[in-house]
Design a protein that fits this description.
Blueprint lengths: L4 E5 L6 H13 L8 E5 L5 H8 L5 E4 L16 H6 L4 E4 L2 H6 L4 H13 L3 E6 L3 H5 L3 H15 L2 H4 L3 E4 L13 H16 L3 H6 L2 E4 L4 H8 L6 E4 L6 H10 L2
Parallel strand pairs: 1-2, 1-8, 2-3, 3-4, 4-5, 5-6, 6-7, 7-8
Helix pairs in contact: 1-2, 1-12, 5-7, 7-9, 11-12
Bound molecules: 1,3-dihydroxyacetonephosphate (13P).
Length: 250
């Protein structure tokens, strides 16, 4: 049985005081979420505060991106061991915003995936197509290339050590959610693709949906057979909405 996972990607939002408030509010009501694993990924600079507020709670936390190197002359970068120092369990890799704005290739994302695992972090590995790619019928090809890159760089067992997040780019921050059937089709495709390499990994790996997931649509998305949770952007900045999505995964 795959345990549902609901992760909040806070992106570049918040201040020290708003981050404190949000963490306190999530923690105060976390017992309402009985089954799903709950994770928050604040901007890295707020991880010390996150660790001190959440360390005695069932909530896990993580970063939004990491360097492929463990240390050295890489100005502005943060390494896996540094995330580990602040108690991170997860790390997002390959988010479409990084693929777009920072020109991260499938090969680089695969290296980041491997670096995360090397340093004991669980990658939340994002894949997904743009609107143009969907409309030209390329969704499966694009997602297959993204998934295969990790297997080719490492192995199927490397891929099995992460969590996959299917985030159609056209649904991120747009209020336009994939329908439950559209999402399930791609999730199922991803699982079948993985099954070509390993049935065990295909059955055990968690595949989250991300893209305008809200309390109002989470239930029907999470009810689908191959949707094991959510990677939440905007709605994760509101404690009540985020926890409502967590409860929908119960
Ligand atoms: P939204 O939930 O704001 O659409 O963002 C999704 C996302 O990008 C999570 O990583």
């Amino acid at each position: 049985m795959r345990r549902p996972l609901v992760a909040g990607n806070w992106k570049m939002n918040g201040s020290l005081s708003s981050v404190r408030d949000l963490l306190v509010a999530i923690k105060a009501n976390i017992t309402q979420v009985s089954r799903a694993e709950i994770v928050v990924c604040p901007p890295a600079i707020f991880l010390p505060e996150t660790q001190s507020l959440l360390q005695d709670s069932p909530i896990s936390w993580g970063g939004q991106d990491l360097s492929i190197y463990d240390s050295g002359a890489y100005t502005g970068e943060i390494s896996g061991p540094m995330f580990q120092d602040f108690g991170c369990k997860y790390i997002i890799v390959g988010h479409s915003e990084r693929r777009t704005y920072h020109k991260e290739s499938n090969a680089l994302v695969a290296e980041k995936f491997a670096a995360a695992v090397k340093f004991g972090l669980i990658p939340i590995f994002c894949v997904g197509e743009t609107l143009e790619q969907r409309e030209s019928g390329a969704t499966e090809d694009i997602v297959a290339q993204q998934v295969d890159a990790v297997v080719e760089h490492g192995s199927i067992s490397l891929l099995g050590q992460g969590v996959i997040a299917y985030e159609p780019v056209w649904a991120i921050g747009t209020g336009r959610t994939a329908t439950p059937d559209q999402a399930q089709d791609v999730h199922n495709f991803i699982r079948q693709r993985i099954a070509n390499y390993s049935q065990d990994v295909a059955q055990s790996v968690r595949i989250l949906y991300g893209g305008s997931m809200k309390p109002g649509n989470a239930g029907e998305l999470l009810a689908k057979a191959d949707i094991d949770g959510g990677l939440i952007g905007g709605a994760s900045l509101n404690a009540a909405d985020f926890l409502a999505i967590g409860m929908a995964a119960n």
